Inverse folding.
Protein backbone atom coordinates (compact mmCIF):
# COMPACT_ATOMS: atom_id res chain seq x y z
CA UNK A 1 0.00 0.00 0.00
CA UNK A 2 1.53 3.31 -0.98
CA UNK A 3 0.56 4.72 2.43
CA UNK A 4 4.09 4.38 3.70
CA UNK A 5 5.54 4.50 0.29
CA UNK A 6 7.72 7.55 0.45
CA UNK A 7 10.67 5.20 0.87
CA UNK A 8 9.46 2.92 -1.95
CA UNK A 9 9.33 5.64 -4.58
CA UNK A 10 12.31 5.19 -6.79
CA UNK A 11 13.95 8.28 -8.23
CA UNK A 12 16.70 6.83 -10.36
CA UNK A 13 18.18 10.14 -11.41
CA UNK A 14 18.51 12.96 -8.99
CA UNK A 15 21.04 14.82 -11.15
CA UNK A 16 20.15 16.55 -14.41
CA UNK A 17 20.82 14.30 -17.40
CA UNK A 18 23.79 15.08 -19.59
CA UNK A 19 21.57 15.32 -22.67
CA UNK A 20 18.27 17.01 -21.88
CA UNK A 21 15.18 15.48 -23.43
CA UNK A 22 12.14 17.44 -24.63
CA UNK A 23 8.64 16.63 -25.69
CA UNK A 24 8.78 18.29 -29.11
CA UNK A 25 5.29 17.33 -30.28
CA UNK A 26 2.05 15.87 -28.93
CA UNK A 27 -1.05 14.46 -30.55
CA UNK A 28 -4.26 12.71 -29.56
CA UNK A 29 -7.22 10.97 -31.09
CA UNK A 30 -10.63 10.00 -29.75
CA UNK A 31 -13.35 8.17 -31.70
CA UNK A 32 -16.38 10.16 -32.86
CA UNK A 33 -19.04 8.14 -31.04
CA UNK A 34 -20.10 9.70 -27.74
CA UNK A 35 -21.67 7.53 -25.04
CA UNK A 36 -23.36 9.91 -22.59
CA UNK A 37 -24.51 9.30 -19.04
CA UNK A 38 -28.09 9.48 -20.41
CA UNK A 39 -27.22 6.63 -22.82
CA UNK A 40 -25.88 4.57 -19.89
CA UNK A 41 -29.11 5.16 -17.95
CA UNK A 42 -30.79 3.07 -20.64
CA UNK A 43 -28.22 0.26 -20.38
CA UNK A 44 -27.72 -0.28 -16.62
CA UNK A 45 -29.29 0.77 -13.32
CA UNK A 46 -27.54 4.13 -13.00
CA UNK A 47 -28.25 7.86 -13.23
CA UNK A 48 -26.50 10.88 -14.68
CA UNK A 49 -26.60 12.36 -11.17
CA UNK A 50 -24.78 9.37 -9.60
CA UNK A 51 -22.08 9.27 -12.28
CA UNK A 52 -21.56 13.03 -12.24
CA UNK A 53 -21.39 13.46 -8.47
CA UNK A 54 -19.28 10.31 -7.82
CA UNK A 55 -16.87 10.66 -10.77
CA UNK A 56 -17.26 13.96 -12.66
CA UNK A 57 -17.67 12.01 -15.92
CA UNK A 58 -20.41 13.19 -18.32
CA UNK A 59 -19.53 11.25 -21.46
CA UNK A 60 -16.90 8.93 -22.97
CA UNK A 61 -15.86 7.92 -26.51
CA UNK A 62 -16.40 4.44 -27.91
CA UNK A 63 -14.45 3.14 -30.91
CA UNK A 64 -16.31 1.27 -33.67
CA UNK A 65 -15.80 -2.50 -34.02
CA UNK A 66 -13.46 -2.16 -36.99
CA UNK A 67 -11.11 0.26 -35.18
CA UNK A 68 -8.25 -1.31 -33.22
CA UNK A 69 -6.08 0.20 -30.52
CA UNK A 70 -3.30 0.50 -33.13
CA UNK A 71 -5.55 2.59 -35.42
CA UNK A 72 -6.16 5.14 -32.68
CA UNK A 73 -2.45 5.05 -31.77
CA UNK A 74 -1.50 5.79 -35.38
CA UNK A 75 -3.88 8.77 -35.55
CA UNK A 76 -2.46 10.24 -32.34
CA UNK A 77 1.12 9.53 -33.48
CA UNK A 78 0.59 11.25 -36.85
CA UNK A 79 -0.68 14.38 -35.09
CA UNK A 80 2.33 14.40 -32.75
CA UNK A 81 4.73 13.85 -35.69
CA UNK A 82 3.12 16.66 -37.65
CA UNK A 83 3.46 19.05 -34.73
CA UNK A 84 7.06 17.99 -34.11
CA UNK A 85 7.84 18.07 -37.84
CA UNK A 86 9.20 14.52 -37.61
CA UNK A 87 9.06 12.07 -40.55
CA UNK A 88 8.41 8.31 -40.19
CA UNK A 89 12.00 7.47 -41.15
CA UNK A 90 13.38 9.65 -38.36
CA UNK A 91 11.74 7.62 -35.57
CA UNK A 92 14.23 5.34 -33.79
CA UNK A 93 11.90 3.74 -31.26
CA UNK A 94 8.15 3.33 -30.71
CA UNK A 95 6.90 2.54 -27.21
CA UNK A 96 3.19 1.77 -26.92
CA UNK A 97 1.67 1.73 -23.44
CA UNK A 98 -1.59 -0.22 -23.40
CA UNK A 99 -3.63 -2.80 -21.50
CA UNK A 100 -5.81 -3.38 -24.57
CA UNK A 101 -3.33 -4.37 -27.29
CA UNK A 102 -4.73 -5.42 -30.67
CA UNK A 103 -3.83 -9.00 -29.64
CA UNK A 104 -1.63 -10.64 -26.98
CA UNK A 105 1.24 -10.69 -29.46
CA UNK A 106 2.83 -9.31 -31.56
CA UNK A 107 3.18 -5.98 -29.82
CA UNK A 108 0.76 -3.24 -30.87
CA UNK A 109 3.83 -0.99 -31.23
CA UNK A 110 5.02 -3.23 -34.11
CA UNK A 111 1.63 -2.93 -35.82
CA UNK A 112 1.82 0.86 -35.35
CA UNK A 113 5.36 0.85 -36.80
CA UNK A 114 4.07 -0.87 -39.93
CA UNK A 115 0.98 1.34 -40.30
CA UNK A 116 3.12 4.48 -39.90
CA UNK A 117 5.80 3.19 -42.26
CA UNK A 118 8.43 3.88 -39.61
CA UNK A 119 10.67 1.12 -40.93
CA UNK A 120 13.83 2.13 -39.04
CA UNK A 121 12.11 2.12 -35.63
CA UNK A 122 12.46 -0.56 -32.99
CA UNK A 123 9.09 -1.11 -31.33
CA UNK A 124 7.72 -2.67 -28.18
CA UNK A 125 4.69 -2.50 -25.87
CA UNK A 126 4.97 -1.49 -22.26
CA UNK A 127 2.32 -2.36 -19.69
CA UNK A 128 1.94 -0.31 -16.55
CA UNK A 129 -1.83 0.20 -16.94
CA UNK A 130 -2.91 3.81 -16.37
CA UNK A 131 0.68 4.74 -15.45
CA UNK A 132 2.03 3.40 -18.75
CA UNK A 133 2.47 6.67 -20.65
CA UNK A 134 4.75 8.20 -18.01
CA UNK A 135 6.67 4.92 -17.69
CA UNK A 136 7.10 5.09 -21.49
CA UNK A 137 8.32 8.69 -21.34
CA UNK A 138 10.89 7.71 -18.71
CA UNK A 139 12.12 4.75 -20.79
CA UNK A 140 12.28 6.84 -23.97
CA UNK A 141 14.13 9.56 -22.14
CA UNK A 142 16.75 7.09 -20.92
CA UNK A 143 17.45 5.95 -24.50
CA UNK A 144 17.95 9.53 -25.66
CA UNK A 145 19.99 10.59 -22.64
CA UNK A 146 22.30 7.62 -23.13
CA UNK A 147 22.81 8.56 -26.79
CA UNK A 148 21.32 5.30 -28.09
CA UNK A 149 18.45 6.99 -29.93
CA UNK A 150 17.57 10.50 -31.07
CA UNK A 151 13.82 10.32 -31.67
CA UNK A 152 11.36 8.28 -29.64
CA UNK A 153 7.59 8.05 -30.16
CA UNK A 154 5.70 7.28 -26.94
CA UNK A 155 2.03 6.36 -27.22
CA UNK A 156 -0.72 5.61 -24.70
CA UNK A 157 -3.63 3.93 -26.50
CA UNK A 158 -6.65 1.98 -25.29
CA UNK A 159 -9.82 0.32 -26.54
CA UNK A 160 -11.17 -0.29 -23.05
CA UNK A 161 -14.71 -0.74 -24.39
CA UNK A 162 -13.64 -4.27 -25.41
CA UNK A 163 -12.80 -5.39 -21.85
CA UNK A 164 -15.65 -3.68 -20.01
CA UNK A 165 -18.58 -5.67 -18.66
CA UNK A 166 -21.39 -3.53 -20.03
CA UNK A 167 -23.77 -5.00 -17.44
CA UNK A 168 -21.61 -4.02 -14.46
CA UNK A 169 -22.69 -0.51 -13.45
CA UNK A 170 -19.75 -0.23 -11.04
CA UNK A 171 -17.23 -0.17 -13.88
CA UNK A 172 -18.96 0.40 -17.23
CA UNK A 173 -19.71 4.06 -16.47
CA UNK A 174 -16.04 4.89 -15.89
CA UNK A 175 -14.03 4.07 -19.00
CA UNK A 176 -13.63 5.10 -22.63
CA UNK A 177 -11.44 4.70 -25.74
CA UNK A 178 -8.72 6.91 -27.23
CA UNK A 179 -5.02 7.53 -27.73
CA UNK A 180 -2.36 10.14 -27.03
CA UNK A 181 1.22 10.40 -28.25
CA UNK A 182 4.41 12.38 -27.74
CA UNK A 183 7.66 12.73 -29.69
CA UNK A 184 10.75 12.84 -27.49
CA UNK A 185 13.99 14.43 -28.70
CA UNK A 186 16.94 16.36 -27.43
CA UNK A 187 16.64 19.99 -28.57
CA UNK A 188 20.22 20.68 -27.57
CA UNK A 189 19.13 23.25 -25.02
CA UNK A 190 18.49 23.38 -21.30
CA UNK A 191 15.35 22.22 -19.51
CA UNK A 192 12.97 19.58 -20.93
CA UNK A 193 12.11 16.57 -18.75
CA UNK A 194 13.59 17.44 -15.35
CA UNK A 195 12.71 14.33 -13.37
CA UNK A 196 10.54 11.22 -13.45
CA UNK A 197 9.57 8.90 -10.58
CA UNK A 198 8.04 5.46 -10.99
CA UNK A 199 6.75 3.03 -8.38
CA UNK A 200 4.85 -0.24 -8.02
CA UNK A 201 3.17 -2.37 -5.36
CA UNK A 202 2.33 -5.85 -6.64
CA UNK A 203 0.87 -6.92 -3.29
CA UNK A 204 -2.35 -5.19 -4.40
CA UNK A 205 -2.53 -6.62 -7.89
CA UNK A 206 -5.98 -8.04 -7.20
CA UNK A 207 -7.82 -4.74 -6.64
CA UNK A 208 -7.75 -3.78 -10.33
CA UNK A 209 -7.26 -6.49 -12.94
CA UNK A 210 -8.51 -8.56 -15.84
CA UNK A 211 -8.07 -12.10 -14.46
CA UNK A 212 -8.15 -14.29 -17.59
CA UNK A 213 -6.52 -14.41 -20.99
CA UNK A 214 -2.97 -14.86 -19.73
CA UNK A 215 -0.97 -17.92 -18.68
CA UNK A 216 -2.71 -18.21 -15.30
CA UNK A 217 -6.23 -18.49 -16.69
CA UNK A 218 -6.03 -19.06 -20.44
CA UNK A 219 -9.18 -18.36 -22.41
CA UNK A 220 -11.67 -21.21 -22.00
CA UNK A 221 -15.44 -21.66 -22.10
CA UNK A 222 -15.35 -21.50 -18.30
CA UNK A 223 -13.31 -18.28 -18.17
CA UNK A 224 -15.66 -16.62 -20.64
CA UNK A 225 -18.84 -17.70 -18.85
CA UNK A 226 -17.38 -16.60 -15.51
CA UNK A 227 -16.78 -13.11 -16.95
CA UNK A 228 -13.06 -13.36 -16.28
CA UNK A 229 -12.13 -11.48 -19.46
CA UNK A 230 -13.62 -8.28 -18.07
CA UNK A 231 -11.98 -5.55 -16.04
CA UNK A 232 -12.63 -6.00 -12.28
CA UNK A 233 -12.11 -3.26 -9.74
CA UNK A 234 -12.51 -2.76 -6.00
CA UNK A 235 -13.34 0.91 -6.50
CA UNK A 236 -12.98 2.14 -2.93
CA UNK A 237 -9.60 0.42 -2.41
CA UNK A 238 -8.29 1.77 -5.69
CA UNK A 239 -9.55 5.24 -4.80
CA UNK A 240 -7.73 5.34 -1.45
CA UNK A 241 -4.48 4.04 -2.91
CA UNK A 242 -4.66 6.43 -5.85
CA UNK A 243 -4.89 9.52 -3.66
CA UNK A 244 -1.94 8.56 -1.44
CA UNK A 245 0.30 7.28 -4.23
CA UNK A 246 -0.30 10.26 -6.53
CA UNK A 247 0.29 12.76 -3.75
CA UNK A 248 3.52 11.01 -2.72
CA UNK A 249 4.76 10.68 -6.31
CA UNK A 250 4.02 14.33 -7.07
CA UNK A 251 5.81 15.51 -3.93
CA UNK A 252 8.80 13.31 -4.73
CA UNK A 253 9.11 14.76 -8.24
CA UNK A 254 8.95 18.32 -6.90
CA UNK A 255 11.59 17.52 -4.27
CA UNK A 256 13.89 15.99 -6.91
CA UNK A 257 13.86 19.32 -8.75
CA UNK A 258 13.99 21.46 -5.65
CA UNK A 259 10.65 23.00 -6.65
CA UNK A 260 7.40 23.76 -4.83
CA UNK A 261 3.88 23.46 -6.19
CA UNK A 262 3.86 27.26 -6.50
CA UNK A 263 6.50 26.95 -9.24
CA UNK A 264 4.24 24.71 -11.32
CA UNK A 265 2.10 26.32 -14.04
CA UNK A 266 -0.08 23.29 -14.78
CA UNK A 267 -0.74 19.95 -13.06
CA UNK A 268 -1.92 17.16 -15.37
CA UNK A 269 -3.15 14.16 -13.35
CA UNK A 270 -4.51 10.80 -14.45
CA UNK A 271 -8.16 11.34 -15.35
CA UNK A 272 -9.99 8.65 -13.35
CA UNK A 273 -12.25 10.48 -10.95
CA UNK A 274 -12.79 14.19 -10.23
CA UNK A 275 -12.92 13.48 -6.49
CA UNK A 276 -9.45 11.86 -6.64
CA UNK A 277 -8.12 14.87 -8.55
CA UNK A 278 -9.68 17.31 -6.06
CA UNK A 279 -8.20 15.38 -3.13
CA UNK A 280 -4.72 15.46 -4.67
CA UNK A 281 -5.00 19.10 -5.58
CA UNK A 282 -6.00 19.86 -1.98
CA UNK A 283 -3.17 17.78 -0.48
CA UNK A 284 -0.57 19.33 -2.80
CA UNK A 285 -1.90 22.85 -2.20
CA UNK A 286 -2.52 23.32 -5.94
CA UNK A 287 -5.56 25.48 -6.74
CA UNK A 288 -7.94 23.66 -9.12
CA UNK A 289 -7.38 26.40 -11.75
CA UNK A 290 -3.88 24.97 -12.14
CA UNK A 291 -5.16 21.44 -12.68
CA UNK A 292 -6.05 20.26 -16.19
CA UNK A 293 -9.23 18.19 -16.39
CA UNK A 294 -10.89 16.55 -19.38
CA UNK A 295 -12.39 13.45 -17.73
CA UNK A 296 -15.93 14.87 -18.05
CA UNK A 297 -15.54 14.38 -21.83
CA UNK A 298 -13.59 11.11 -22.03
CA UNK A 299 -13.84 9.23 -18.72
CA UNK A 300 -10.84 7.11 -17.77
CA UNK A 301 -8.82 6.07 -20.84
CA UNK A 302 -6.10 4.30 -18.81
CA UNK A 303 -2.66 4.75 -20.43
CA UNK A 304 -4.10 7.23 -22.93
CA UNK A 305 -5.65 9.54 -20.30
CA UNK A 306 -2.66 11.65 -19.33
CA UNK A 307 -1.33 11.61 -22.91
CA UNK A 308 -4.60 13.03 -24.28
CA UNK A 309 -4.76 15.55 -21.43
CA UNK A 310 -1.16 16.68 -22.08
CA UNK A 311 -1.89 17.18 -25.77
CA UNK A 312 -5.11 19.09 -25.17
CA UNK A 313 -3.62 21.26 -22.42
CA UNK A 314 -0.63 22.12 -24.66
CA UNK A 315 -2.82 22.93 -27.67
CA UNK A 316 -5.16 25.04 -25.51
CA UNK A 317 -2.14 27.11 -24.41
CA UNK A 318 -2.44 26.17 -20.72
CA UNK A 319 1.38 26.53 -20.52
CA UNK A 320 4.07 28.11 -22.67
CA UNK A 321 7.69 27.33 -23.54
CA UNK A 322 9.74 27.48 -20.33
CA UNK A 323 6.77 26.85 -18.00
CA UNK A 324 6.98 24.02 -15.47
CA UNK A 325 4.34 21.29 -15.61
CA UNK A 326 3.74 18.31 -13.34
CA UNK A 327 2.26 15.02 -14.58
CA UNK A 328 1.12 12.39 -12.09
CA UNK A 329 -0.57 9.04 -12.71
CA UNK A 330 -1.77 5.90 -10.97
CA UNK A 331 -3.02 2.52 -12.12
CA UNK A 332 -3.34 -1.21 -11.84
CA UNK A 333 -0.29 -3.09 -10.64
CA UNK A 334 -0.45 -1.08 -8.54
CA UNK A 335 1.72 1.39 -10.36
CA UNK A 336 2.25 5.14 -10.13
CA UNK A 337 4.52 7.72 -11.71
CA UNK A 338 5.21 11.44 -11.87
CA UNK A 339 7.18 13.74 -14.09
CA UNK A 340 8.23 17.41 -14.04
CA UNK A 341 8.83 19.03 -17.42
CA UNK A 342 10.09 22.49 -18.24
CA UNK A 343 8.18 22.88 -21.49
O1 LIG B 1 -7.52 4.10 -13.57
C1 LIG B 1 -7.20 3.42 -12.40
C2 LIG B 1 -7.69 4.15 -11.28
N1 LIG B 1 -9.11 3.97 -11.09
C3 LIG B 1 -9.67 4.71 -10.18
O2 LIG B 1 -9.01 5.56 -9.67
C4 LIG B 1 -11.10 4.48 -9.77
C5 LIG B 1 -11.17 4.64 -8.28
N2 LIG B 1 -12.48 4.46 -7.68
C6 LIG B 1 -13.51 5.30 -7.91
O3 LIG B 1 -13.41 6.20 -8.70
C7 LIG B 1 -14.76 5.12 -7.08
O4 LIG B 1 -14.52 4.19 -6.06
C8 LIG B 1 -15.99 4.66 -7.91
C9 LIG B 1 -16.44 5.81 -8.81
C10 LIG B 1 -15.63 3.46 -8.75
C11 LIG B 1 -17.15 4.31 -6.99
O5 LIG B 1 -17.46 5.40 -6.14
P1 LIG B 1 -17.71 5.17 -4.58
O6 LIG B 1 -18.05 6.46 -4.00
O7 LIG B 1 -16.49 4.46 -4.05
O8 LIG B 1 -19.00 4.27 -4.59
P2 LIG B 1 -19.20 2.78 -4.03
O9 LIG B 1 -18.49 1.80 -4.88
O10 LIG B 1 -18.93 2.76 -2.57
O11 LIG B 1 -20.74 2.61 -4.23
C12 LIG B 1 -21.69 3.38 -3.50
C13 LIG B 1 -23.07 2.93 -3.89
C14 LIG B 1 -23.25 1.42 -3.81
O12 LIG B 1 -24.57 1.17 -3.39
P3 LIG B 1 -24.88 0.79 -1.85
O13 LIG B 1 -24.06 -0.42 -1.56
O14 LIG B 1 -24.45 1.99 -1.06
O15 LIG B 1 -26.35 0.55 -1.86
C15 LIG B 1 -23.10 0.97 -5.22
O16 LIG B 1 -23.78 -0.23 -5.49
O17 LIG B 1 -23.30 3.30 -5.26
C16 LIG B 1 -23.72 2.13 -5.97
N3 LIG B 1 -23.23 2.23 -7.34
C17 LIG B 1 -23.93 2.86 -8.30
N4 LIG B 1 -25.12 3.44 -8.29
C18 LIG B 1 -25.54 4.00 -9.45
C19 LIG B 1 -22.06 1.80 -7.85
N5 LIG B 1 -21.98 2.12 -9.14
C20 LIG B 1 -23.13 2.77 -9.45
C21 LIG B 1 -23.63 3.36 -10.63
N6 LIG B 1 -24.82 3.96 -10.57
N7 LIG B 1 -22.93 3.34 -11.78
Amino acid sequence: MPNSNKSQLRSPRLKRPTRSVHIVGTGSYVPDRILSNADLEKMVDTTDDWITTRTGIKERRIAPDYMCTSDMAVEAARRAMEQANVREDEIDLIICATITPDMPFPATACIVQHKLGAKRAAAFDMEAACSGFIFGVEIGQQFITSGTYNTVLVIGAEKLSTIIDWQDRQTCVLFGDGAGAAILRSRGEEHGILTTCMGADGSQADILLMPAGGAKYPASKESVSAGMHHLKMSGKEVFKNAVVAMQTAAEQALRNCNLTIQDIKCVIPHQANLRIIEAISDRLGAPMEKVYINLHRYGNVSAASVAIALDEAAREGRFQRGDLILLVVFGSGLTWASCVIQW
Observations:
- DSSP finds eleven helices and 13 strands in the chain.
- The pocket of oxa(dethia)-CoA is lined by residues 46, 50-51, 54-55, 130, 169-170, 173, 208, 235-236, 238-239, 242, 272-273, 276, 300, 302, 330-331 (CB under 6 Å).
- Confidence is low (pLDDT under 50) at residues 1-17.
